[in-house]
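User: quick one, sequence for these C-alpha cells?
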C-alpha cells in the first residue's frame, strides 16, 4: 500500500500572515492634472505686531510668598486660595446662583449645586 508523499513543504511560508504593504494607487479626479501656477507668488509670512489677540491676561499672583512645606504644588492657584501666607486668604469668589452660599473653590460650588439644587 503506497501512501502519498507527506513530507513537509521544502519552502515553508512566512510566519507573518499579515498582508504586505503596497504603494497607494488611489487617484482622485483632476489629481494628475494638478500643477502649481508659476505666475502666483507664494505667500510670505508677515511680521508680528506684538499685540495679543483676545482679552489681556490678568496679572498672576505672587506665589513666592508661600512658605508651605512641600514646595510648589501642581495647582498653585488653587493652593494659593487656602494658603496661610496669602493675605487675601478666605476669599470666596465662587457663589451659588440659586442661594447665597459662597465657596473658595469652583469644584465645591459645582458639587453643592449638584447635591442641593
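Assistant:
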Amino acid at each position: 500500500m503506497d501512501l502519498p508523499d507527506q513530507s513537509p513543504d521544502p519552502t515553508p511560508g512566512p510566519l507573518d500572515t499579515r498582508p504586505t504593504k503596497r504603494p497607494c494607487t488611489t487617484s482622485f479626479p483632476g489629481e494628475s492634472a494638478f500643477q502649481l501656477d508659476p505666475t502666483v507668488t507664494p505667500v510670505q509670512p508677515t511680521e508680528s505686531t506684538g499685540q495679543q489677540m483676545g482679552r489681556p491676561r490678568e496679572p498672576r499672583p505672587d506665589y513666592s510668598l508661600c512658605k508651605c512645606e512641600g514646595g510648589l504644588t501642581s495647582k498653585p492657584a488653587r493652593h494659593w486660595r487656602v494658603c496661610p501666607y496669602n493675605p487675601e486668604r478666605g476669599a470666596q469668589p465662587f457663589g451659588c446662583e440659586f442661594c447665597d452660599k459662597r465657596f473658595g473653590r469652583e469644584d465645591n460650588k459645582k458639587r453643592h449645586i449638584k447635591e442641593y439644587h
